[in-house]
Amino acid sequence: MKAFNLLLLVLVVGSALAVVLLVAEERRLTQEIAATRDGIERLEGTYAELQLEEGTLTAQGRIERIATEKLGMRPPDEANVTVVFR
Q: Which DSSP string corresponds to 38-79?
């Protein structure tokens, strides 16, 4: 009978330790999930800002103005344009 009681005690203590370890792991994973979600929100905000900036930088009027004013580019004369059909 003593051996059986000792076995039960060991099993109960082992189960209690397992529960404590699992709860600690669950808390750690919950914190990791929260940190990851925060990172995702931050990256989504950055992505939205970059999309807006891309839209501004690639506006056709802006590109034409920079090509004309800063680079001295101009459209070619019609005599210099050849249309190729496939």
A: HHHHHHHHHHHHHHHHHHHHT-HHHHHHHHHHTT---PPPGG
Q: Are 13 and 7 in contact (CB under 8 A)?
A: no
How far, in Å, CA of 42 to CA of 36, rounded? 10
Token pair, residue 66, equals: 């920079």
Domain locations in the chain? Answer: 24-72
- Predicted confidence (pLDDT) per residue in 23-80, tens digit: 999 999 999 999 999 999 999 999 999 999 999 999 999 999 999 999 999 999 998 9
Confidence label for 1 from pLDDT (cuts 50, 70 and 90): confident
Query: Which of the 8 DSSP states describes residue 80?
Result: G
